[in-house]
Amino acid sequence: MTAGADNTTEGRGLPTLVRLCLFYASLFLVSGVSLPYAGTFLRDRGMSGGAIGLILAVPLLLKPFTGPALAVWADGFKLRRTPMILLLIGAGLGYAGLLAGHNLLWLVLAWFVGQTLMSTVSPLIDVITLRRARVEGFNYGLARGTGSSAFIAANLLMGAILTFAAPTIIALWIVATCFIGALAAAWMVPPERVHAEGAKPGRAERWKGLGDLMRNRTFVLAVVTAGLIQGAHAFYYGFSAILWRKQGISEPMIGVLWGVGVAVEVGFMFFLEPLRRRWGPERFLVLGALAAVVRWTAYAFQPPLWALFPLQALHALTFAASFLASLRLIEKLAPPSAASPAQAINSALSSGFTLGIATLASGPLFDAFGPFGYLATAGMAGLGLIGAIVLARQSRSLSNDRLRF
């Protein structure tokens, strides 16, 4: 057995894939409530719409700084799961601060601590899961898709709970599931070593690795491209339900439309990963960007209900395909010694800064242009498409050079 690996059933009685599925499920029990219902909790605390937007945006806007810094810190441990345990405990304590006051600055601080620490766990576990999937031959999408399924379950369950419980239950759920996640990290995450030789790298060495990544033009292009495609979802996340209501679509049907988007995402991750392996991440990134241009352009013209179902099905490409492609592409471009910072930078842009900026811009776009605000995000996706095409051509050129050699 090589250093940095353990038996697939070591000490747990469960295969690696099952253990990782259970851990992803524990993570998404948190986000399945924190993402859809944070605004409901903050409104109950007396926050205005503008204040809620500020509270939610701060961690996103600072993520390009906090994400890589925390990833470099995490690489200072011998085992990758150790910082995940600490991050989840810290996130639970940060979210608990939401219950301690109604002051705007206090709520900004509490949400920032909880959300920042929580969001750092995902790229760290992705590093382990991607490597194990490659070595042991299982589908990464099964683990991630299990997490998405838990997201749906948590979302639906909290919706039912809120019919008889006060919004305070939202924060209590988030805190409790963070601590459950810390236990799951300790018991379910394999004891992967940060470095195969087991030596703890120095702080200067870890920061140098991060600097080397940022000087790699292909890596930067890949991160920016993925960020543009993912960030283009911002207007949809913020205003699709409002616009559909104005079209006369009922609340239950809006829920069905959102459910279709998540369901195809889960189905894609469960069943189409082998196709992605054959095509390669660059082609899938092109496919995701092209689908995003089509989807957001169509939404700008308020298509009828029947047309929304196939357009919602494109979520499998605009989100799932581009997300999986970006993970694999970043893994391919980054050296193993900088795997955690590389995925953290990718996460910081795709689900952090780019999405945060686009979210802040979506409000004024909606006020000024209504559904035509989607055209701005279609433009973002178009820029992502250009970047994806460049990456695909670079990959093809490199492959041809190797064949000639």
Structure commentary:
- With 405 residues, the protein is mainly α.
- Helix content is 80%, strand content 0%.
- It has helices at 16-44, 49-74, 81-96, 104-136, 140-161, 168-188, 203-214, 217-231, 234-246, 251-271, 273-279, 281-299, 305-313, 315-333, 339-369, 374-404.
- Helix 10 (251-271) packs parallel to helix 14 (315-333) and helix 12 packs antiparallel against helix 14.
- The radius of gyration is 21 Å and the shape is globular.
- The model is unreliable at 1-11 and 400-405 (pLDDT under 50).
Task: Compose a concise summary of this entry.
With 405 residues, the protein is mainly alpha-helical. It has 16 helices and no strands.
Keywords:
405 residues, mainly alpha, 16 helices, 80% helix, disordered C terminus
Beta-strand content estimate: under 5%
| Helical percentage | over 70%
The unreliable regions are 1-11, 400-405
The succession of helices and strands, N to C, reads: HHHHHHHHHHHHHHHH
- The number of helices is 16
Number of strands: 0
Oligomeric state of this protein:
single chain
Approximate shape: globular
Structural class: mainly alpha
- Biggest β-sheet strands, sense, barrel: none
Mean pLDDT over all positions: 84
Provide the gyration radius in Å: 21 Å
Distance between the termini: 34 Å
